[in-house]
Amino acid sequence: MLFLFEYTTCTENGFPASIAVEGLAMFKALSMGIKEEVYSFINPEHIAQFRNFSMAEKLNEDFLTALEKCDKALIIAPESDNLLYILTEKVEKAYIENLGISSRAVRICSDKYETLRRVRGLRTPETEVFNGKTSLDFPLVAKPRVGEGGEGVFFIRNEEGLGRIPENYIIQEYIPGQTASASLFSSDNKTELVSLQTQVIDGFRYMGADIPFEIENSEELIDASYRIEGLNGFFGMDFIVNNGEIVLLEINPRVTTPVIAFEAAYGITFYDILDGKFPERTVRTRIRKIEGKAKNPFISTGNYSIVIR
């Protein structure tokens, strides 16, 4: 039995609907098309959308009970506050099969500065851990050293803006270009590129993706994955295409939002990929996160919806 856990869906976490809707969409996609029994528990706020699962009561107790019931687990959680690392480590200590990334790789990739320090052979933005001053040229991008979803990211246009930067932030040179992401799967020390997609960004907030996307030298992304020990399973990379060149921004050590469109775009599910089946055809597909009511949404919560077209 598979224990499927997505932090927003399964806990009373208080995330805003703009973030929660992505987690709910991933949970819904991953709870469909599976060929074995799935076990999970649902935040009471969202139970109406997932009535075939039980209601969550106490996170720690529910989580440990699930690990006792199941022989494998897939965990999706924020990197912030070490949540993904802590929960992944619990899976490993329970000695059941972890379908996600190892806790060691989660710890490295959760730290954006450490990730870029370890990657070799691929262009990355000039990056510093902010200490009150900088040697980089403006404009700059300031972002949490550990974080996700573009939350807390902002521009720094001049020296005065440095005073706005909180502790535990990194700063990077601003690189213009097309924002994009890759979905990859690694098994038996071999990484496969599953999907490339452009990203729709509003400011620094993720608002969707267009699948597929083609770029020369995409094998550089695969090469970069081998620089992180324990990066097995399904994970994502965010990057910018600048003058035809890939500039790696970060590695997301977990399933990412584009997985919700794999069946529409490629005719395969996440679980097909686990079984070694990869895309053979492509239908152009759009994912959009919409504020307000959407017609025929994939999923909705609060004032936000995810639609797939």
Could you explain how this protein is built, in words?
This protein has 309 residues and is of the alpha+beta class. It folds into three domains: 108 residues, Rossmann fold (3-Layer(aba) Sandwich); 47 residues, no CATH class; 132 residues, D-amino Acid Aminotransferase, Chain A, domain 1, CATH 3.30.470.20. The protein is 23% helix and 31% strand. It starts with a strand and ends with a strand.
Strand order in the largest sheet? 15-14-11-12-13-16-18-17
N-to-C terminal Cα separation, in Å?
32 Å
β content, as a range? 25-35%
| CATH fold assignment of the largest domain | D-amino Acid Aminotransferase, Chain A, domain 1
Q: CATH homologous superfamily of the largest domain - what is it?
A: ATP-grasp fold, B domain
Q: In terms of structural class, how would the helical and strand content be classed?
A: alpha+beta
Helix content: 10-25%
Number of structural domains = 3
| CATH uppermost class of the largest domain | Alpha Beta
From the alpha carbons, calculate the radius of gyration and give it in angstroms. 19 Å
Average pLDDT across residues? 93
- Profile the largest sheet: 8 strands, antiparallel
Q: Return residue spans where pLDDT drops below 50 for at least 5 consecutive residues.
A: none
Total number of beta strands: 18
| Helix run count | 9
Q: State the shape.
A: globular
